[in-house]
Amino acid sequence: MHIAEIVGKNLLTLRKEKNWTQDEVAEKLGVSAQAVSKWETGASCPDISLLPVISDLYGVLVDDLLRDEEERRKRKESVMTYVPEEKRKKPEELLFRVLVDSGDGDKVRINLPLPLLKAGIGFGMASKFTSKFLGEDALKDIDLEQIFRLAESGVIGKLIEVDSGNGDHVEIVVE
Amino acid sequence: MKIVIKSESFHMKLVVPSALAFNRCMAWLWKKLLRKEFSEEISGKEWRKLFRTVRKTARRYRGMPLVEVEEKSGDHVYIFF
């Protein structure tokens, strides 16, 4: 997809989310409604100097405007990012995902909502779980409490990636 | 909570109401089991607190896969909230 179409699609989605009309957006940005219409249909791209203004208006990063949904999702999963407090999700909306691809071809995916992890950490169950029940596994030295604190303080994305000697691959992603 | 087990010759879907799987009685059973099998001491109160959170989370994330296991042999196990 051409970059103008990607930006246009993102702008349209963001405007609809906010329930704004093209006229309202045009007024906020100090441009004509026709210009906004052209951006959204992918006929033209907003000027580069306007991108930070648009991103502030919609409360997203400039980078988010330039990438399609699939790319944004992959990027979110692959990069550890800090989310400022005002843009941060509530801790109870965060998801703690453990992805294990074992060397012998088995796959395990665990999706743990953060409140559940918090409850486990609350009485030391998480540390008992990793140290005792996972034994010699690559996960045994992972401090889940630290990960939880990181997520609570706004650090999300791929927090841990471990490749063990026997071919196991473990990722811990907070999203 | 739904448990799905799939293999070439076997397919099972088990629906367990959260209120049945995570109640005071199960908390007591888990406490005893852990003490007996793993010499771990987690009090009944802590289990009940955890189970309360599980029930609450299950309501909020109804239908979301909690655990997905796909074995190389083709067997699949899914646990959904």
Backbone CA Rg of chain B: 15 Å
Task: Give the overall pLDDT of chain A as a whole number.
Answer: 80
Characterize the main sheet of chain B.
4 strands, antiparallel
* Distance, first to last CA of chain A: 26 Å
Taken together, the total number of domains of chain A comes to 2
Question: What share of residues are in beta strands of chain A?
Answer: 15-25%
How helical, in percent, are the residues of chain A?
A: 40-55%
Number of spatially distinct domains of chain B: 1
Q: Distance between termini of chain B?
A: 4 Å
Strands side by side in the biggest sheet of chain B: 2-1-4-3
**Global shape of chain A:** elongated
Mean pLDDT of chain B: 85
Strand order of the largest sheet of chain A: 1-4-5-2-3
Please count the helical segments of chain A: 9
Q: Tally the helices of chain B.
A: 3
Quaternary state reads heterodimer
User: Radius of gyration of chain A over alpha carbons?
Assistant: 21 Å
From the helix content, strand content and strand pairing of chain A, which structural class follows?
alpha+beta
Topology (elements, then pairings):
The complex is a heterodimer of chains A (175) and B (81).
Chain A (H helix, E strand, L loop, with lengths): L2 H16 L3 H8 L3 H9 L9 H8 L3 H5 L2 H10 L2 E2 L12 E7 L5 E7 H9 L2 H9 L10 H9 L2 E9 L5 E6 L1
Antiparallel strand pairs in A: 1-4, 2-3, 2-5, 4-5
Helix pairs in contact in A: 1-3, 2-3
Chain B lengths: L1 E5 L4 E5 L2 H4 L2 H15 L5 H17 L4 E6 L5 E5 L1
Antiparallel strand pairs in B: 1-2, 1-4, 3-4
Task: Please outline what is shown here.
The complex is a heterodimer of chains A (175) and B (81). Chain A has 175 residues and is of the alpha+beta class.
Keywords:
heterodimer; A: 175 residues; alpha+beta; 434 Repressor (Amino-terminal Domain); five-stranded antiparallel β-sheet; 9 helices; 5 strands; B: 81 residues; four-stranded antiparallel β-sheet; 3 helices; globular
Describe this structure in words.
The complex is a heterodimer of chains A (175) and B (81). By secondary structure, chain A is of the alpha+beta class. Chain A has two domains: 3-78, lambda repressor-like DNA-binding domains (434 Repressor (Amino-terminal Domain)), CATH 1.10.260; 85-174, no CATH class. Chain A has helices at residues 3-18, 22-29, 33-41, 51-58, 62-66, 69-78, 114-122, 125-133, 144-152, and strands at residues 81-82, 95-101, 107-113, 155-163, 169-174. The longest helix of chain A is centred in the N-terminal third of the chain and has 16 residues, at 3-18. By secondary structure, chain B is α+β, with helices and mostly antiparallel strands. Chain B contains three helices and four strands, in the order ββαααββ. In chain B, β1 and β2 (11-15) form a beta hairpin. The longest helix of chain B is centred in the middle third of the chain and has 17 residues, at 44-60. Chain B is globular and about 40 Å long. The chains are: A alpha+beta (175), B alpha+beta (81). β3 of chain A pairs antiparallel with β3 (65-70) of chain B, so a sheet runs across the interface.
